[in-house]
Specification:
mainly alpha; globular
Length: about 160
C-alpha cells in the first residue's frame, strides 16, 4: 500500500514546528535582539550621551548624500511621529549635531543636515557600534551565520512591510 500526504501516517510526521516550538523560536529572536541592542545602545549612550533615536538619525544622515535628508523622510525612515522627530531634532540641534536647512527649490521642504561636529560624532558612534556588533554578534555567530541572520531579517522585513 502506498503512502501519500493525506494518509494519517503523513499527518503525524509533519515537519513543521508545533505551536510551542515556533513561539519559543520567536521568543528567542526577540530576547537575543533585546540583549544585543541593550549592549549596543549602552555603549553608545555611555560614550556619546545620545539616545537610540539620535543614533539612528546620525547613522542615516552620515550615509546620505551631502549628509542631509528631508526631515519628513528622515522621520518616516526612523519610524518617528512628526512630533517625536521634532523633539529629537531639536535636542540634536541644541547639541550641535545637526542643523535645519531650507530647500532652495521648494519652500515646503526642510533638510536635516549634519554639522561638522555631528559628522564627527556620527562617524565615531558608527565605529563604536560596529565594534560592539563585532564582539556581540560576529564573534559568537561567525560571518556565515551573521550574514544568514541579516538575510533572514531582510526577508521578514520585506514579507511584513506594507506596500
Amino acid at each position: 500500500m502506498s503512502s501519500d500526504a493525506t494518509s494519517p501516517a503523513a499527518a503525524t510526521t509533519d515537519p513543521r514546528p508545533g505551536d510551542d516550538e515556533i513561539i519559543t523560536w520567536w521568543g528567542l529572536v526577540i530576547e537575543g535582539y533585546h540583549a544585543t541592542q541593550d549592549r549596543l545602545m549602552g555603549a553608545i549612550a555611555d560614550r556619546f550621551a545620545i539616545t537610540p533615536a539620535a543614533f539612528d538619525i546620525l547613522l542615516r544622515l552620515v550615509r546620505s548624500p551631502d549628509h542631509r535628508m528631508p526631515m519628513t523622510r528622515l522621520a518616516r525612515e526612523a519610524a518617528l511621529s512628526s512630533g517625536g522627530f521634532t523633539k529629537v531634532a531639536d535636542r540634536m540641534a541644541a547639541a550641535g549635531l545637526l542643523r535645519r536647512e531650507p530647500c532652495p527649490a521648494d519652500r515646503r521642504v526642510t533638510y536635516a543636515a549634519l554639522t561638522d561636529h555631528g559628522r564627527t560624532v556620527a562617524e565615531q558612534a558608527r565605529a563604536t557600534g560596529a565594534q560592539v556588533l563585532r564582539d556581540r554578534v560576529l564573534a559568537p555567530l561567525g560571518t556565515e551565520q551573521a550574514a544568514a541572520l541579516a538575510e533572514a531579517m531582510r526577508t521578514l522585513r520585506e514579507a511584513n512591510t506594507e506596500q
